[in-house]
Amino acid sequence: MNRPGSGTYSSITLGNVRSIRIMITGEAINPGTYTVSSLATAFNALSLSGGPSRNGSFRNIEVIRNNKIIKKSIYIVFLLMPI
Asked: b or e along 31-49 (b: 16 or more beta carbons within 10 Å of the residue's beta carbon)?
């Protein structure tokens, strides 16, 4: 069993995490080509481009590869503002 003090531990090492080039198009604040980690998500990439513009939203994000939609994502973002 993995209990505190049991002497059991694990170690994970990531080797050769590569960078990939992506293109952000549509209603982003700064659309364009970006280099991101291969572990980045669509949300990470959109954040890197400054987020959605006034006309855009997180509600319909498509990941397209070889002219085919491989994933559609809907992100609902809750922002907590201090009162």
From this structure: eeebeeeeebebeebbebb
